[in-house]
Amino acid sequence: MLKGVRIIDFTNYLPGPYATMRLAELGAEVIKIEPPEGDPARNLGIKKDGTGIVYLANNRQKKSIILNLKEEEERSAALKLISAADAVIESFRPGVMKKLGLDYESVVKYKEDIVYCSLTGYGEQGSFHKLGSHDLNYMGVSGVLAQFKDSSGKPVHPSIQIADYMGALAASERILAGIASRALTGKGSNHCISIADVVASIMGNHLLIEQETGETRGISHLNGKIISYAIYETKDHRYVTLGALEKKFWENFCLAVEREEWIEAHYSKTEQSNLVYEQVQELFGSRDLADWVEFGKKVDCCLAPVLESNELRDFPLYNEKGMVFQNPKDFTSVKMHGDLKSENSFSPEKGEHGTEIRNNFIEKASD
Q1: Which of 265, 280, 303, 355 has the lowest CB atom count within 10 Å?
Q2: How far is CA 237 from CA 174, 199, 233, 240, 285, in A?
Q3: Predicted confidence band at 364 (pLDDT cuts at 50, 70, 90)?
Q4: Segments of the chain assigned to CATH 3.40.50.10540
Q5: So which residues are the catalytic ones?
């Protein structure tokens, strides 16, 4: 879908690379600009064959070139690449690209219709814009982390970077919007994504509900307070999610387990004083997870398991689509787009395409 679209990628670590990987797997040519030492994610944390997992998981199907942006000649090379591109994305702290002469105001002189996207923590203005932060900070300051609390009211530390991924999705969305707008108007555009803002944007329901009712936990039917929309423990100490919010699904569930008398308790509370809730807990605790998975496939009642990460590959929903696969370098990968093929894609070696890119773009521009 994006064949013929060229994107210059100045991002590192997780959010930016994830955004451009989604675009690469839609067909865009993504040229990743790396410093001499490479994307820091190459040396971060757990490694496979000497390369950081975070890098390998988020840079498939891109081209890599090494440019030392501290050197004038290399900055000039970057500008030549941009002049032959459709979009630019960067994730440095606000002000860094301006110091390098690679900010929007500078590059638009070389490419008038460029779509330029800055992916930041807190935006380019305001009292927070220069502060360093990470996913956990964005989750906290947005109000979203407060929605994940244990029984004592303590926020639960996420083990996945929700804010970073949301920021990445917003960045890829904005780049696509910019490209679409350019096709209609002939004009480029400049965009600044604040990850904190993106995460806060999903709090609309919560804020309006709190304004009207004082409730801080969002939609009451969806926050674990009713028995038909809740998480239950199984006999083998695993968990299932029951989402029988609509009457027909709850009725299907009750009739399938031969407890018709539960139907009237559809929206009753998940409180131990509620006899039906106690009975539903006992029912789920009487069978293993595998039994409930089969039950959920046969009975249309919005019942699904809580899977562990190592179970995704073999779970029918994903196995049928080949969502989890081994790429040619034997790296376990997950498709970005379930309906598109990704099996032959992998992340490039540092500077792997340097000669190709210099010959095809930089040297030609010099001529």
Answers
A1: 355
A2: 43, 32, 6, 10, 8
A3: confident
A4: 6-201+330-366
A5: 164
* pTM of the predicted structure, to 2 decimals: 0.93
Q: How far apart are CA 213 and CA 211, in angstroms?
A: 6
Specify whether the CB–CB gap between 238 and 311 falls below 8 A: no
Helices (H), 84-193: 96-100, 104-107, 135-142, 162-185
Tell me, what's the pLDDT at 345?
Answer: 77
**Distance between CA atoms of residues 249 and 246, nearest Å:** 6
Question: Which residue reads 């797997």 in tokens?
Answer: 25
Side chain identity at residue 141, one-letter code: V
Q: What is the mean pLDDT of the chain?
A: 94
pLDDT given for residue 187 in this prediction: 97
Q: Are 79 and 107 in contact (CB under 8 A)?
A: yes
Q: Rounded CA gap, 117 and 102, in Å?
A: 12
Inform me whether the pLDDT recorded for 86 exceeds 90.
yes
